[in-house]
Amino acid sequence: MIVIYGVKEALNPRKAKMSDLLHQCMQQVLGMPEDKRAHRFIPMDSDDFYAPGGRSAAYTVIEINMMAGRSPETIKALIKAIFRAFEDGLGLAPVDVEITVNEQPAHCWGFRGITGDEARLNYRIDV
Questions:
Q1: In a domain, 127, yes or no
Q2: What's one Pfam family the UniProt record gives for this protein (predicted)?
C-alpha cells in the first residue's frame, strides 16, 4: 500500500498521473502485477502540512508499505525510479519528493481473510 501526502491544491490535480507513475515504477522494479494498485491520497490543508525549508508548494511525501523481502539494491532502485518518474512525468524536482519504504514481515499483513505469510501471491517478494 502506498500513501501519498501533499497540500491539496498541488496534490489533487496530479493524483491520477502520480498513481500511474508510481504503479509503473512498482511494476518495472518490483514486478508487481497490473491489478496490484493500492494507492491512498491524503490531500491536506497547507496549515496542516509543514515542509522542510527549501521545498515548494508541490512538496509531496510518499510512504510505501510492503512485505519484507526485497534487497536493499531493489528498494534503492525503486526510490530512484520514482524520483526520475516524478521529475520527468510531473516536473517535480527531487527536492520536492520525500519517500520512505516501510517493510513489515508477511505475518503482519492481513488481506482476503488471511495473513500475508499464508497467501499465495502472483508476484515475487524476494527481488
A1: no
A2: Tautomerase_2
